[in-house]
Recover the amino acids of this structure.
């Protein structure tokens, strides 16, 4: 871990060294310039690569974890918090199965490092219902049969909830375009669009 | 994904110092490209410096145009009224990029720095001079339907994946960079570099340089601009060919013209020959067809991507008809 500061003194010592250092190949003007740049600022404290404390605020509850910086939000949710409603489809941002809300905005949890969303409000599919009362979007997916195998459904629903908040769902074409970040390999699209439009108050 | 250390930067100077101290350190902004490539083993940084807390998110009007902070999100830039009104090509390119979710994560600086989507580059078991210099380019004699028809070399024929960069090229955008020697500006046209014999080098940035903002100068042509993206499916897909066109027509004559292409070259590509065929000429279908033909000059296919040359001609023609208001 690089904690602490490059002090002016250490820099001056280094700056005085080039003639000696040149013999061992570390006295290039470039390295001196680097040392100079580093001299005026504190060195950033870094964590990892081992487990580090990470606090995640999921569905209104704070969870204290010890995880490596390389753990994605998706893996933290599924593997550490047992919130398996958020699905892993591609793990590379190409399907939308992992869609969750971070501070109200939809994102792909598979490309989000958990350590980077501390202090943010994370909403997953488990956080949508109010007790036994389904969120209107969940109810609409049931009513319109907006799925077949159901694997893409949590991501579709989170994406649709965000879409309504974004006020973009004005007609069928806009719903299709703004839901395009969620792929359904079963091809349940017509019913998904109908569900979203029904919550948006549009006749289908 | 390789194990790495993580640090969150509070100011640009300490972020830059952290990179200066470690040649294998990288910045992370939205993470949509670097995390993806780390999972593939293509990028293996020792340290990720999180720059998302730096105050570089603003989208501000200036005396000469608009200044977009490097950490502004793609979705926020697309939605900004000054961008939609004065640079429609930029808003359209952003809205045609990736997905709503990815645009909520990805930043403008990260977008310009994103690496090619070439399947050989992304697969560490394949030969690729960009990822592993000296191993050869598997695309030249391989599956190259998505690859470059201009600007490539014997070392690399990848395409640059950014839609935003193509649009920004058509409005003469300027990149603001903070480096060891202080602030400097680089016209976007000189920001990305062609592969030549060093395909691993993609931009003029040195290790540790930080993009702070992108400046969009206001112009009549930028206000009358358009982005046309042709792809395998209607949304959530990279371009096969894209065209950013900006025209200033007064009294029936073309006073200023910019034509930039995506999906055809290892960098966003400015079609200078097409622009020359437009400047000073009447804004007619004949002029646009000639410019579209000129846009393909010097293009060469590698078999599976030959179709792109025809597609360039047609897409440029259509985009020009749109901004020229004759369609
Ligand atoms: C499935 C998918 C589809 C996509 N479709 C499209 C598309 O259609 N069109 C399109 O244009 N793009 C598309 N993208 C690419 C996407 O736009 C980029 O991944 C994104 O813009 C990168 O921004 P970021 O902030 O996430 O960058 P990061 O991943 O955080 O960083 C990318 C690189 O930039 C460097 N970097 C970041 N910020 C700075 C800075 N300020 N100064 C210096 N270096 C910096 C990082 O060190 C890193 O090397 C797609 C991506 C995915 C995953
Ligand atoms: S699992 Fe995240 S987009 Fe597919
Ligand atoms: S319902 Fe099966 S993937 Fe969408």
């Amino acid at each position: 871990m690089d904690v602490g500061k490059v002090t002016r003194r250490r820099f001056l010592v280094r700056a005085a060294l080039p003639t000696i250092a040149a013999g061992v190949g570390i006295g290039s003007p470039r390295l001196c310039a680097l040392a100079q740049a580093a001299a005026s600022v504190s060195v950033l404290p870094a964590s990892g690569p081992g487990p580090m404390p990470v606090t995640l605020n999921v569905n209104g509850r704070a969870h204290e974890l010890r995880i490596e910086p390389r753990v994605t939000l998706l893996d933290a949710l599924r593997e550490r918090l047992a919130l398996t409603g958020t699905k892993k489809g591609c793990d590379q941002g190409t399907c939308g199965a992992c869609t969750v809300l971070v501070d109200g905005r939809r994102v792909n949890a598979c490309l989000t490092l958990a350590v980077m969303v501390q202090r943010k409000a994370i909403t997953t599919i488990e956080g949508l219902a109010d007790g036994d009362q389904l969120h209107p979007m969940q109810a609409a997916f049931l009513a319109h049969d907006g799925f077949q195998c159901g694997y893409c459904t949590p991501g579709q629903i989170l994406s649709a909830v965000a879409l309504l908040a974004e006020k973009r769902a004005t007609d069928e074409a806009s719903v299709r375009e703004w839901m395009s970040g969620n792929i359904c390999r079963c091809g349940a699209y017509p019913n998904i669009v109908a569900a979203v439009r029904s919550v948006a108050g549009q006749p289908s | 994904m390789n194990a790495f250390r993580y640090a969150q930067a509070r100011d640009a100077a300490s972020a830059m110092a952290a990179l200066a101290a470690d040649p294998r350190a990288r910045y992370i902004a939205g993470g949509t490209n670097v995390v993806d490539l780390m999972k593939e083993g293509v990028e293996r940084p020792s340290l990720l410096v999180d720059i998302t807390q730096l105050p570089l998110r603003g989208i501000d009007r200036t005396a000469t145009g608009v200044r977009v902070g490097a950490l502004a999100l793609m979705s926020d830039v697309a939605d900004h009224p000054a961008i939609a009104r004065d640079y429609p090509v930029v808003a359209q390119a952003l809205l045609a990029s990736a997905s709503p979710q990815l645009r909520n994560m990805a930043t403008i600086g990260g977008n310009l720095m994103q690496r090619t989507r070439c399947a050989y580059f992304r697969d560490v078991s394949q030969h690729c001079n960009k990822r592993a210099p000296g191993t050869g380019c598997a695309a030249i004699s391989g599956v190259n339907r998505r690859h470059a028809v201009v600007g490539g070399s014997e070392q690399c024929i990848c395409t640059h994946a950014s839609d935003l960069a193509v649009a920004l090229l058509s409005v003469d955008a300027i990149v603001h960079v903070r480096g060891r020697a202080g602030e400097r500006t680089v016209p976007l046209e000189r920001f990305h570099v062609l592969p030549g014999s060093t395909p691993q080098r993609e931009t003029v940035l040195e290790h540790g340089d930080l993009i702070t903002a992108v400046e969009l100068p206001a112009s009549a042509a930028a206000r009358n601009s358009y982005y046309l993206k042709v792809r395998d499916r209607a949304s959530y897909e990279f371009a096969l060919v894209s065209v950013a066109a900006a025209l200033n027509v007064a009294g029936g004559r073309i006073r200023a013209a910019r034509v930039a292409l995506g999906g055809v070259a290892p960098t966003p590509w400015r079609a200078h020959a097409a622009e020359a065929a437009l400047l000073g000429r009447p804004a007619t279908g004949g002029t646009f067809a000639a410019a579209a033909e000129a846009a393909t000059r010097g293009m060469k296919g590698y078999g599976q991507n030959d179709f792109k040359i025809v597609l360039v001609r047609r897409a440029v023609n259509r985009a020009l008809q749109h901004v020229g208001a004759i369609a």
